[in-house]
Design a protein that fits this description.
Length: 613
């Protein structure tokens, strides 16, 4: 009794509201309370009647297809009333019970069927309401008016149908010719009011205590009586069908925007009311009926189920609901999945997915690269200190400094290479390497080109090739290189590619497409077998070959000359050079060079005297 009072008190707290898919706070509060109400109302806690109501607006269009038996039964009763001049006393109890049982047998979705009459229509009883319903694979029928006052104004399925305002009720006139013996009698006309779908009424979901002891929703169609065609049809009762919501699943999971199909066996009214934690996703379970917790909480991608020996790998929705129902502390840590190891899209445990590079190799190569940069800075400093020495002066200190600067730029690429791979890092790595390559080898080419021009002159000719003239040509090539790098960056930006080792461990590399096919061919096979550590070593060695070897070839001979203090000044007399031709003939060449400075006009006169032996 105390439990019944609590339920009645909960019922008084419910207010009528319109369900909204937007999920505002007030609506969700009402739905949560409705779910609690469904959980607590049961066969053992209700009193006779239909007062346990859920004031939720349901989309009844899903069930309109099942209303035809009620409409046909109501219209048949209306014809009987016309035949009996407003009374059904000529019918028997058995006829009414056969009608309602037949409706239940006719469709598996129909849980119950009833015919409820106004007092006096069937004068055998003060009130008469035969009802049939399914129970234990059979159909039971009885008169619910014995223990239940369906005429009470609080009975929604009857009173709302009776009081509904109707306009343009369909009234039809039929012509009938009865038979007597072997001849037909004269035709007569019969005026009959006919109910349609719009004349009926859908109830809110309610618990039918004492009827079917189940959560049901009822559609009631009025039974009309009319004495003549000019009268307004009078309400004389109704015929109704019940759809058992106990067999309809409560779907508490979030709405799937990609699925527009609606299942008549699912109650979508409670969407989004699950209690799954943020690391899990709700998956509805079918066939559990009108009850809360009909779902499982599976781990989201990137998380794994903490209990290895439990199947299925999901938290049971009923256990989750019970925990939050009885625990005041809404702590979700008990029902949370564990985050996968870095780099894992999905996982079943905490095993690593990413290749862990050797910190020793990375640290060692970075220290060596810093040492390389420091050495290049020292070389550039020594070049500045000995800029007036003949061996440095004739090699053009400006371009020697540019070569050092280009080498430092190429070295800086390695530090970007050691950062975590991202699209920004991949784009940044393009520039220091290729700009440094252009600056270093562009300077070397300019110097070589000037020497080639000087020594390719076969006759005496004044050549004017100062440094600023070479810088102009250098800048033109630089603009071209810059445009190529810009085109590369924006027309074919790099992507991040995942490579797996033989142990199925992943690591990420920058992929530059067709622009770097020449570099990618040889190293791809090595990467899949050796991992990311080999990638660091290959990049380090590549930079050392480009930078260290080139710097050594250019500067070591010059510093060796400075160290030995060798005088390479040009002699004032002619130099005699003996050469052998391809035919092994001896040729003597007298060269009369003028002193040359890279920033001065270069003039060279050559004289040749050949002696054949």
């Amino acid at each position: 009794m105390e439990q019944s009072q609590k339920i009645c008190f909960s019922l008084s707290c419910f207010n009528l509201f319109q369900f909204c898919s937007s999920g505002n706070k007030d609506t969700n509060d009402h739905i949560d309370r409705a779910l609690e109400y469904v959980y607590h109302v049961s066969k053992n806690s209700c009193s006779e009647g239909t007062k346990e109501v859920l004031y939720l607006n349901v989309d009844y269009n899903l069930w309109n297809m099942y209303t035809d038996p009620a409409i046909r039964t109501a219209n048949l009763m209306s014809q009987y009333l016309v035949h009996g001049n407003g009374s059904l006393d000529f019918l028997t109890d058995e006829f009414f019970y056969m009608m309602v049982r037949n409706n239940v047998h006719g469709d598996s979705m129909i849980f119950g069927s009833t015919i409820a009459l106004e007092p006096g229509v069937y004068s055998k009883y003060p009130s008469f309401c035969p009802y049939a319903f399914r129970e234990n694979n059979t159909v039971r029928s009885h008169d619910i008016a014995i223990n239940y006052n369906y005429l009470d104004p609080t009975t929604e399925w009857y009173y709302r149908t009776k009081m509904k305002i109707r306009e343009n009720i369909t009234v039809t006139t039929d012509t009938i010719s009865y038979r007597e013996n072997n001849s037909s009698l004269p035709e007569i006309t019969v005026t009959i009011p006919l109910a349609s779908l719009r004349d009926g009424h859908w109830t809110y979901p309610y618990f039918d205590c004492g009827g079917g002891d189940a959560w049901i929703v009822t559609y009631s169609t009025p039974i009309f009586f009319i004495e003549n065609q000019n009268e307004t049809p009078k309400f004389r009762g109704l015929a109704g069908i019940d759809i058992e919501m106990t067999n309809i699943d409560i779907n508490q999971c979030d709405t799937d925007p990609t699925n527009n199909k609606t299942d008549s066996n699912q109650m979508d009214l409670f969407r989004g009311t699950h209690k799954c934690a943020a690391t899990t996703r709700c998956v509805a379970k079918h066939g559990l009926g009108f009850r809360t917790g009909a779902y499982d909480c599976y781990c989201e991608d990137g998380y794994y189920f903490p209990h290895a020996n439990v199947e299925p790998k999901a938290f049971n929705g009923m256990e989750v609901e019970d925990y939050f129902r009885y625990q005041k502390n809404l702590d979700q840590t008990l029902f949370m999945c564990i985050k996968c190891a870095p780099g894992c899209d999905t996982c079943v445990d905490g095993s690593p997915c990413l290749y862990k590079s050797s910190e020793i190799i990375r640290l060692l190569t970075m220290m060596l690269m810093i040492f390389t940069i420091a050495a290049i800075c020292i070389v550039s400093g020594m070049t500045f200190v000995y800029r007036k020495h003949q061996v440095i002066k004739t090699a053009s200190p400006l371009f020697l400094h540019l070569m050092c600067f280009g080498g430092i730029l190429m070295c800086f690429e390695y530090f970007a290479f050691c950062l975590d791979v991202s699209l920004v890092v991949c784009n940044v790595r393009i520039w220091p390497h290729h700009l440094g390559f252009f600056v270093m080898y562009g300077s070397l080419i300019m110097k070589t080109w000037r020497i080639s021009v000087i020594f390719s002159i076969g006759t005496t000719k004044r050549i004017h090739l100062p440094d600023h003239s070479l810088i102009q040509r250098f800048c033109v090539i630089g603009v071209i290189a810059f445009c190529l790098l810009m085109t590369w960056t924006f027309s074919s930006p790099p992507t991040i590619e995942t490579i797996k080792t033989d142990d199925t461990l992943m690591f990420f590399v920058c992929s530059y497409g067709v622009w770097e096919y020449a570099f990618a061919g040889g190293e791809r096979f090595i990467l899949t077998s050796s991992g990311q550590d080999m990638l660091y070593l290959l990049n380090f060695i590549q930079i050392q070959v480009y930078v260290t070897v080139t710097i050594a070839f250019i500067f070591v001979p010059k510093f060796w000359v400075i160290y030995k203090n060798v005088d390479i000044g040009e002699p004032s007399h002619s130099a005699s050079i003996a050469m052998h031709t391809i035919t092994d003939r001896s040729r003597q060449t007298q060269v009369h060079p003028h002193p040359v400075h890279p920033d001065s006009e270069l003039t060279m006169t050559t004289g040749t005297q050949t002696n054949f032996i």
